[in-house]
Write a structure and sequence with these properties.
Blueprint (H helix, E strand, L loop, with lengths): L8 H11 L4 E4 L4 E3 H17 L7 E5 L4 H13 L2 E4 L6 H11 L3 E4 L1 H6 L2 H4 L5 E4 L8 E2 H6 L16 E6 L9 E5 H14 L7 E4 L6 H14 L2 E4 L5 H11 L3 E2 L3 H8 L14 E4 L6 H11 L2 E8 L3 E5 L6 H6 L3 E2 L3 E6 L12 E7 L5 E2 L3 H7 L6 E9 L5 E6 L4 E3 L2 E3 L1 H10 L3 E11 L3 E10 L7 H9 L10 E4 L13 H11 L10
Parallel strand pairs: 1-11, 3-4, 3-5, 5-6, 6-7, 10-11, 10-12, 13-14, 25-26
Antiparallel strand pairs: 1-2, 8-9, 9-19, 14-15, 15-16, 17-18, 18-20, 20-21, 22-23, 24-25
Length: about 525
């Protein structure tokens, strides 16, 4: 077995197939596929792509949902050293055009939905070749045709895991135009290996994977982690709370990684107690903040040793709460830096701050991106000459080295000269028994510069007034932090990974003024 630090993405599959060739790798609710079958199909596809002129360093666009073909394509591309550019298949024309124009792929794998959202004819002006998946289109080759073509034995292209790019992931664009984050083989593989080690994963585990594969969380923390240890994967095309609970019970799922929104939706099921979730062992909640009380509720009601993690697309996994740690640390912090990662808190001059002081989280380590694709100036703005990445996130380190998240640097609300951290108010609202979820933003004010506005989602069937929430907050925080404006919502605008899009939320609030926000979900 290769040293984990030298493993390429394709090596993960090769290693698993050699050891677990006849064992089930994926159940996509329709078909059960072994590790041997995945490797055989990936090898055939790699050969077909090579014959079509795809080679090391070529970009391949992938606009597919969580299908088993998506996984095969990832490993096939990795074998020949091509760079995958996966993105949300729900994206519309403007989003797709930006990604294709920026990444300039030589080939794209698409669904029928792609034609509805963008159009094959328009795409062919940008992308030289397209492959259809699970449908046929005159003039275009299909995935099925490629894997059944005559092929030749193709050796894996030599990969330098620390330097060769495996994927370009486009950020969700919560703060502006999406940027293509270039991530190495080592970045995704070492993150997967570390998670497997820290959570004591083995081939006996069963992962359920509703997180999107076009996101770093679904790709590294879920898919590659499971493949590294030869575990079984229950693959879902999209998240559905009833389906997830049913499959946990029927498939004896042991590991559930997800974003806060996924776990919250499971807790909201009135019939949650009717499901047998005894097989659940552990999992990670990450990708966006979650209140401590909600973490505690998940751990207790789902009966799992849920851990918290901090990581972003540009750096992969950064911290993790230790598996056997005190519950207080698991509830209230994002854990400690994982092996191979350095972490520090800095001020606006990028000088390191003492323990306990709030500043910008900066990171250095194996998962650091190679930069933003085609954007050298934007890259230089966030990575210094010593290899430190400046996240734009605010946090502090405790005496014991635990990371606490405070909020986004750009999300700080400055009201009359006072700094207000939205995360503090959101954490308090999470403790109020009538509130399911909240998001706090600043909105312009001619006198104060900005005022505080809280968007609140209430528990089903519960009534609550603006005054009631303000009264509760006034008992817990200084008056200047209490939101001047409370709006109620049934849904929040979110990214595909479940993060609340605060910029979009703020724009909706400004557009609707005193009207309640209803059905703003994407």
């Amino acid at each position: 077995m290769k040293d984990s630090k030298s493993l390429s993405v394709y090596s993960l599959l090769e290693q698993a197939a050699n050891k677990f060739i006849g064992e089930e790798a994926i159940f996509d609710t329709n078909r059960r596929i072994t590790y041997g079958e995945i490797k055989q199909e990936a090898d055939r596809l790699a050969s077909a792509l090579s014959l079509r002129g795809i080679s090391k360093g070529d970009n391949l666009a992938i606009a597919l949902p969580n299908w088993y073909e998506t996984i095969v394509i990832y490993f096939a591309a990795a074998k020949i050293g091509a760079i995958i550019v996966p993105f949300n298949p729900k994206y519309k024309a403007y989003e797709i055009q930006h990604i294709l124009m920026n990444s300039k792929p030589k080939l794209a794998f698409v669904t029928k939905e792609f034609d509805d959202n963008f159009g094959f004819k328009d795409a062919l002006f940008i992308v030289p070749d397209m492959i259809t998946v699970r449908f046929d289109w005159e003039g275009l080759s299909s995935y099925q045709e490629l894997i059944t073509e005559e092929n030749y034995k193709l050796e894996e292209t030599r990969i330098e895991v620390d330097n060769d790019i495996f994927c370009i992931l486009y950020t969700s664009g919560t703060t502006g135009v999406p940027k293509g984050v270039m991530i190495t083989h080592r970045g995704v593989v070492q993150s997967a290996v570390t998670i497997a080690s820290e959570l004591y994963c083995s081939e006996q585990d069963v992962f359920i994977l509703p997180a999107p594969l076009f996101h770093i969380f679904g790709m590294a923390v879920n898919l590659f982690c499971a493949v590294f240890i030869g575990a079984r994967i229950v693959l879902l095309e999209r998240f559905n709370s009833i389906e997830v609970l049913t499959l946990i019970e029927n498939e004896n799922v042991t590991i559930l990684h997800g974003v806060p929104a996924m776990f919250i939706k499971l807790l909201e099921r009135e019939n949650l107690n009717q499901f047998n979730l005894a097989s659940l062992r552990t999992g990670i909640v990450g990708a966006s903040p979650i209140p401590p009380l909600k973490v505690k509720e998940i751990r207790e009601r789902l009966g799992m040793n849920l851990c918290q993690s901090f990581g972003i697309t540009e750096t992969a996994t950064v911290t993790l709460t230790p598996f056997h740690d005190d519950e207080r640390n698991i509830l209230e912090t994002l854990g400690k830096q994982i092996p191979g990662v350095e972490l520090r808190i800095v001020n606006d001059d990028r000088s390191e701050l003492p323990v306990g002081e709030i500043g910008e989280i900066s990171i250095k380590g194996f998962g650091l991106m190679k930069g933003y694709y085609g954007m050298p100036e934007e890259t230089a703005a966030v990575i210094d000459d010593d290899g430190w990445y400046y996240t734009g996130d605010l946090g502090l380190l405790t005496n014991q080295g635990y990371l606490k998240f405070v909020g986004r640097k750009k999300e700080i609300i400055i009201r009359g000269g006072f700094n207000i951290y939205p995360q503090e108010i959101e954490a308090l609202l999470a403790k109020y028994p009538k509130v399911v979820e909240s998001a706090v933003v600043g909105i312009p004010d001619t006198m104060m510069g900005e005022i505080v506005c809280a968007a609140v989602k209430l528990k089903s069937g519960i009534e609550c007034s603006e005054d009631e929430i303000k009264s509760y907050l006034k008992k817990n925080i200084a008056n200047y932090k209490v939101p001047e404006k409370i709006v109620f919502t049934t849904n929040f605008p979110v990214t595909a990974s479940g993060k609340i899009q605060k910029l979009k939320l703020r724009n909706v609030i400004l557009a609707q003024e005193n009207e309640p926000i209803i059905n703003t979900e994407r």
